[in-house]
Amino acid sequence: MTTNTKAYGVQNENDNLKPMDIKRREVGEDDVKIDISYCGVCHSDIHTARNEWGGSTYPVVPGHEIIGRVTAVGKNVKDHKEGDLVGVGCMVDSCQECAQCKNDLEQFCEKGATFTYNSEDKHLKGQQTYGGYSRSVVVNKEFILRIPENLDEAGAAPLLCAGITTWSPLTHWKVKKGDKVGVIGLGGLGHMGVKFAHALGAQVVMITTSPSKAEDAKKLGAHEVLISKDDDEMAKHQGSFDFILNTIPVGHEMDPYIALLKIDATMVLVGAVEPLKPFNGGSIIMGRKRIAGSLIGGIKETQEMLDFCGKHNIISDIELIDIKNINEAYERVVKADVKYRFVIDMASLSD
């Protein structure tokens, strides 16, 4: 059995997002149904809608930063009830049996995680998963996240992707009070990296090519701003960082940033899902430096992040839009013309 719900999506890679009806499964024994209030706009939504990474299955209904209220639960659901404020991030299922799933790393499921959109739907044969640009969604109880009630709902939406993407490496590499932490790039990811590193007690340095972003970076919690185009300033900071979070979304020169790391320090990439420009192997050998990557986070870790945000009242800086303005928003995201994340008011879908 299925039910129809209103959504916004694309029928092909050259299409604008338009209204459509999609099918959602009925609530099963282990399921939670959510009436979606807000959905964040991630650059991954654009890449998938436009098939820029390849592999998109149409129609595509994007959206993996979902906030809403529970409207129904299956008989096996004990931790959520009607009316609860909840969220759904980048995943809606996994095998829940492999070593990675048992280690709370569902994003690395050995049988492949089921992502919130553009994955094979295990419950509706022949259909792919559809994301949060819709009025409702039905999700397995293990992938439902509790949202602290003190947080602004719209501002909490990007925590489910941008938030966990930056929180996970900061905590996995044990960033602590007093560490000198660099955050490269001030966008949807970078602004969350600054907020989290500051809240963890680090000395936060925003590293950017744009002097115009200095004031904003300091308002977000950066203690210093380093202009990466200024060779003299880069030289002053050489060999001084305990950790660098690199959120640059495209291929780029690595050597200038590697030079900033202390001996045994790590730079983690979370943005560039594409080839990087070649870098000098000597730059990591001479200093035993590390370059690593990180992909979102598991469900347990995401809940820990949300609880931390509730305790410290951390949300994303957003621009709230109606769904009818989503195509314009996509163009602005591509131009980096948003501070710092668009969030869709999903009530506007039924207007």
> How far apart lie the N and C ends?
27 Å
Q: Can you tell me the number of structural domains? A: 2
What sequence of helices (H) and strands (E) makes up the elements?
Answer: EEEHEEEHEEEHHEHEHEHEHEHEHEHE
Which geometry do the CA atoms define?
A: globular
Low-confidence stretches: none
What Rg do the Cα atoms give?
Answer: 20 Å
What is the C-level CATH assignment of the largest domain? Answer: Alpha Beta
Classify the secondary structure makeup into a structural class: alpha/beta
* Average of pLDDT: 96
CATH topology heading of the largest domain: Quinone Oxidoreductase, Chain A, domain 1
Q: How many helical stretches?
A: 11
Structure, described:
Residues 12-344 form the Enoyl reductase (ER) domain. InterPro entries: ADH-like_C, ADH-like_N, ADH_Zn_CS, CAD-like, D-isomer_DH_CS1, ER, GroES-like_sf, NAD(P)-bd_dom_sf. One of its GO terms (molecular function) is zinc ion binding. Keywords: Metal-binding, Oxidoreductase, Zinc. This protein has 11 helices and 17 strands. With 351 residues, the protein is of the alpha/beta class. The protein folds into 2 domains: 2-161 and 316-350, Quinone Oxidoreductase, Chain A, domain 1 (Alpha-Beta Complex); 163-293, Rossmann fold (3-Layer(aba) Sandwich), CATH 3.40.50. The strands form 4 sheets. Strands 3, 4, 5, 8, 9, 16 and 17 form a 7-stranded mixed beta sheet that branches. Helix 4 (162-172) crosses helix 5 (188-199). The longest helix is centred in the last third of the chain and has 14 residues, at 299-312. The mean pLDDT is 96.
